[in-house]
Amino acid sequence: KNQVEQSPQSLIILEGKNCTLQCNYTVSPFSNLRWYKQDTGRGPVSLTIMTFSENTKSNGRYTATLDADTKQSSLHITASQLSDSASYICVVRLPFNDYKLSFGAGTTVTVRA
Amino acid sequence: EAQVTQNPRYLITVTGKKLTVTCSQNMNHEYMSWYRQDPGLGLRQIYYSMNVEVTDKGDVPEGYKVSRKEKRNFPLILESPSPNQTSLYFCASRGRTSLYNEQFFGPGTRLTVL
b vs e for B7-39, b when ≥16 Cβ sit within 10 Å of the residue's Cβ? Predict the structure, then answer.
């Protein structure tokens, strides 16, 4: 079973609207949790990173939150733009291993005019 | 410009014909890794390297080989490709261990094995 589950699998929103993506993980504790944005046909690019003790991090219109008690993270996109159309991937870096990452399957966001 | 490059970007081949996908980074990173990405499964690690001549298996290493003879290069080798290796492949690199060191991904190589 994957250690990182994301929902929804995909969503469509109108330009200017907000949306929230969910990430549930079973790895605990962990070193850090990142959200990546992956444009179609390109490699993932880091949006935010949070350590186990942090509970929110922003990057422009992207805000990530972390609830260590419920083992959930969310990525909130404010005032969506057409360029936000992409796949968003939640990634947890496992503890005690420098190079072990657990990837969610991603949420595909489509922003329509 | 700091980047990870992969070649080729697209490749169609036939079962059993050996191929190599190259990966190069110009950031002097110690860590490099190969992933494959399949629909609904997310990114899965194939192999990783912690430095020159140091490599280890990831989660799905079967059917793949790697080498790290130079710090900047980390080629992925498929000795005898099979159709189940049809996938989107990403190379990534990262600096020495640090809580916040970001992993940089290449642009991807889409491989089709007929």
Answer: eeeebebeeeeebebebbbeeebbbbbbbbbee
pLDDT tens, N- to C-terminus, chain A (113 residues): 568 999 999 999 999 999 999 999 997 777 789 999 999 888 999 999 998 888 999 999 999 999 988 999 999 999 999 999 999 999 988 776 666 788 999 999 999 99
Q: Answer whether A84's CB lies under 8 Å from A29's CB.
A: no
The continuous run of DSSP H or E covering B75 comes out as: none
Whether chain A has a CB inside 8 Å of the CB on B10: the answer is: no
How many other β-carbons are positioned within 10 Å of the β-carbon of residue A82? 10
Q: Which two tokens stand for residue B45?
A: 């690690």
Q: Which of B21, B84, B33 is nearest to A103 (CA)?
A: B33
B68's tokens: 């790290």
CB-CB neighbors (< 8 A) of A104 in chain B = 42
Measured between beta carbons, the chain A residues lying within 8 angstroms of B92 are 43
**Length of chain B, please?**
114
Angle in degrees, CA B105, B111, B114, rounded to 5: 165
The two beta strands, A45-51 and A56-59, are unpaired
In terms of Cα–Cα distance, which of A95, A93, A63 is closest to A103? A93
